Amino acid sequence: MNARDFLDLKGREAAEQVAVKAGTTYAYFYQIARGNRRPSVKLAEKLVKASNQELDFVALLRGARS
């Protein structure tokens, strides 16, 4: 799933936990989810791992509309 769907389905608290585990902030995760930013390959990998593979690596790199 992409970051937008994750945020919409799981909510802010879950997104915040994933962001912190991945070494970023909720604010940056929110920007990724809304399509204002795209994560680096390294951050996308960390986000996937932190979400227990709920987030999709390719969808993260493609952006919010994936």
- CATH fold assignment: 434 Repressor (Amino-terminal Domain)
> Number of domains in the coordinates?
1
Q: What is the level-2 CATH architecture name?
A: Orthogonal Bundle
Integer-rounded radius of gyration: 10 Å
Termini separation: 9 Å
Q: What class would the helix/strand composition place it in? A: mainly alpha
Tell me about this structure:
By secondary structure, the chain is mainly α. It has one domain (3-62): 434 Repressor (Amino-terminal Domain) (Orthogonal Bundle). It is built from five helices and no strands. The chain has helices at residues 3-10, 12-22, 26-33, 41-50, 57-62. Helix 1 (3-10) packs across helix 3 and helix 2 (12-22) crosses helix 4 (41-50). The longest helix has 11 residues, at 12-22. It is globular, with a radius of gyration of 10 Å. The model has no long low-confidence stretch (mean pLDDT 95).
Features of the shown structure:
mainly alpha, 65% helix
List the helices and strands and how they pair.
Layout: H1 3-10, H2 12-22, H3 26-33, H4 41-50, H5 57-62
Helix pairs in contact: 1-2, 1-3, 2-3, 2-4
